Amino acid sequence: MTTTAPHAHTAPAASRDGHARRFAGAVSPSTSTLTPLDATEIRLTDGFWAEKQALNADVVLRHCEDWMERIGWTGNFDRAAAGLGDPSTPWEHSGIEFVDSEVYKLLEGMAWELGREHDPALQARYDALVDRVAAAQEGDGYLHTSFGRAWQRPRWSDLEWGHELYSMGHLLQAVVAAERTGASPRLVEIGRRLAEHLWTVFGPEGRVAICGHPEVEVALAELGRALDEPRWIELARLFVDRRGRGLLGQIEYGAEYFQDDVPVRDAGVLRGHAVRALYLAAGALDVAVETRDDELADAVRRQWEATVATRTYVTGGMGSHHQDEAFGADHELPPDRAYSETCAGIASTMLSWRLLLADGEARYADLIERTLLNVVLASPRDDGRAFFYTNTLHQRSEGVEPDEDELNARALSSLRAPWFEVSCCPTNVARTLASVEQFFATRSSDGVQLHQYGSYDVDTVLDDGTPLALSVASGYPLDGRVEVTWRGDVEREVELTLRVPSWADGAPATVVLPDGEVRQAQGSTTVVRRRFSAGDVVVLELPVVAEWVLPDPRIDAVRGQVAVQRGPLVLALESVDLPTGSVNDVLVDTTVDPVTTSVGARVELSRSRTPASGWPYGRAASTAGSLGSVELLPYAAWGNRGPSTMRVWLPVDDLEA
Ligand SMILES: [Zn+2]
Prior knowledge:
Blueprint: E1 7-8, E2 31-32, E3 35-36, E4 42-46, H1 48-70, H2 75-82, H3 100-116, H4 120-135, H5 164-181, H6 185-202, H7 216-227, H8 230-242, H9 274-291, H10 294-310, H11 342-359, H12 362-374, E5 394-395, H13 424-434, E6 441-444, E7 447-450, E8 455-461, E9 467-474, E10 481-486, E11 494-499, E12 509-512, E13 518-521, E14 525-530, E15 537-541, E16 546-549, E17 561-566, E18 569-574, E19 586-588, E20 595-596, E21 601-609, E22 622-634, E23 646-647, E24 650-651
Parallel strand pairs: 7-11
Antiparallel strand pairs: 1-2, 3-6, 4-8, 5-23, 6-7, 8-9, 9-10, 10-15, 11-14, 12-13, 12-15, 16-17, 17-18, 17-24, 18-22, 18-23, 19-21, 20-21, 21-22
Helix pairs in contact: 1-3, 1-13, 2-4, 3-4, 3-5, 3-13, 5-6, 5-7, 7-8, 7-9, 8-9, 9-10, 9-11, 11-12
The structure holds zinc ion (ZN).
Zinc ion binds near residues 389 and 425.
């Protein structure tokens, strides 16, 4: 992004109201090319994203809270607290061994929501939950409901599978949110005590070990930033450097499953379990930034590039193996077997955001946009009460509606389910939507950069004290017009940097300046530099039209097929939009361009006729008849109209050729 040089910045000591310490959002590096905005500096105002955030605040947070209360996951903390004086008497632990982490992600989401909009009722629920977690912390700072009591497995006895440090990592991320929003000094104190304990057990004088599921690395690095404590960053560095040296035991999926096969700085691509790999890479980049370790940062960059080039679905989804939830080999991206876990989409966004802050390059914001709109937002149902865990690109059978009162296996249902036995995704969606505006804009010494589009206000102050106030208004992602209105005079020349999404490279994007001059917006960003006055308007016009997307021919599973993208939205064919039948035997006529509609696009479809011999191989199949013009809708919205079949990639009708 332009020529902005990296510069150190310091977070403000207090917000403008002088009360809570509102530092930047979830990520606040001590040095970066771009500076994140804090919760008081950016605010969604209305439209698409504000509605998603309101759904999260009004429904999703409560849904997660109610489910975990009902099935005893929150109650684990109460039972652990009651048993503190008598660790030998068993009590019933609800859920699998890492359900603590879901309570922590809920706490994180609640804190970001409180930082955004102070709701006394939510604060009371949050405080009560913090108290229950606090009561379960042991005298030495250890906090986990599944390990360490006489009747449980000993502490740190199952680092491969126990998720002990993973769960604690999510607690520490909740602590970061509590600190930066001022939501709970009590939770911050819990986090300090836990971090001290981890330093004693795993620090330079401690045990040389790592957790089977990375997460504590990214959490400790940020905790160190938030509490200005270099020891937590050092502990994150130790965990990152120890991985890839075979410290974890042999498992059937091989050491690459938990990235213990190759040291982070030597790896060329992300591999193994996708969520683990992405959380680890995010933590490694944080460590690299804080320790000025350019070699490590370059390694993470290289892995991001290779992974995007060869191991990413058109939706931005990552991970094609169900069995080990892993990235497959290069170009192994079958649409009907896509695992594409919602959490992997969120972890990918976490990684890309850190790289964007470090390097300032729009390609990272491009992937954030693709992933937020086509993976993360695909997870919650329209009513916010059910979620996709996996995000297939081709649903072959209609499946059945899941029981709204039962726990679901993670990938069992073809429709969104209210809760899962392993329920990492709903709480991850909750914490992400509660803080999603943090990904939208940044500042530098020269001005402000808009990375994501929608309707929001930015009120920030540059390092030299220059205040900037502007409002962004857009019907994005359905509409490509982005209107930026300056609300105050700016004392000096500054730069307004607008991302030109990579999907817009086929048709010209234009910028209209306050004086009416119209410019072509070329490249990945366009920069308007001037001394803005109150009322000045800059308009970016992005060409939101439906276009064919062709796959790299090495992605064998979709060779001979096309997808349709409408601006940033990947579209999908759902059987409820067909006159009859399923999506499995459709063909698309690519000689007729897709017609852009208000929310999707129409394409010409027909059905294929295959031999009736009972043997699905032989001479070429033929076209059986036209289905006419059929509407494709945004992929993220599929599955909201009852059981259906669905596909993103459409086989091209060239059977007669
Ligand atoms: Zn998940």
